[in-house]
Amino acid sequence: MSRDKVVADAADAVADVERGASLAVGGFGLCGIPSVLIHALLERGAGELRVVSNNCGVDDWGLGLLLREGLISRMTSSYVGENKEFARQYLQGELEVELVPQGTLAERLRAGGSGIPAFYTPAGAGTMIAEGGLAWRHGTDGSVAVASPPKESRTFGGREHILEEGITTDFALVRAAVGDRHGNLRFDSSARNFNPQAAMAGRITVAEVEELVEPGELAPDDVHLPGIFVQRVVLVGSADPRAEKRVERRTVRPAHEGNR
């Protein structure tokens, strides 16, 4: 059996993502997001997607594109503050949202990918995360249609901890700086945030890579995620507008002001 995991293009890579599929999507803000694969999903048009990702992009980029077209039915995230359409859909009962502390979300993905069904953590103990009652989905009248359940708790070393379940998904979409044909990946700086964990959680993981090398060209110490977690690799070109690297907000001053 060939170990070459490279597929022709992004459309082929997500061709079997069906309506109602669950997805783990890597990246931090707009850094390191698999934007080409997201566009391929947008073109595919499969809806009712249940997405696990640190955030949901912005209104006109990243996962925000899928959200705008009504293709996402549920989000599991830790930060959602950059997307007005996200807030509108959530408050009007169109979108179900599970908010998870950021470190807990990363560990839930890693645990799921490692075969660990659940773990205890002090994060969220003594809050509504533990007690339940958070509005996962609103009714059209503003009522709470679906509320978060309470979590099991135990005390370790005199400190309360709550039980969190590991996350696994049907698919995972990630972006890497370098990948080889066997699926070994290296991420660049902050783009490493959430990408390895998301990749581990997917039963079928698709990686878009900016540079494709042959097996053996990546030194073992440079491999951030071994190919055992990756089933498909697609090369994205830097000239592809879908591969553009954006930031949520520009906070730099004009060049002439920096000289004062």
Automatic annotation (TrEMBL):
Keyword Transferase: yes
GO MF annotations, alphabetized: transferase activity
InterPro entries xref list: 3-oxoacid_CoA-transf_A, CoA_trans_fam_I, NagB/RpiA_transferase-like
Xref: Pfam families: CoA_trans
Keywords assigned by UniProt, alphabetized: Transferase
Transferase in keyword set: yes
Superkingdom of the source species: Bacteria
UniProt name for this protein: CoA transferase subunit A
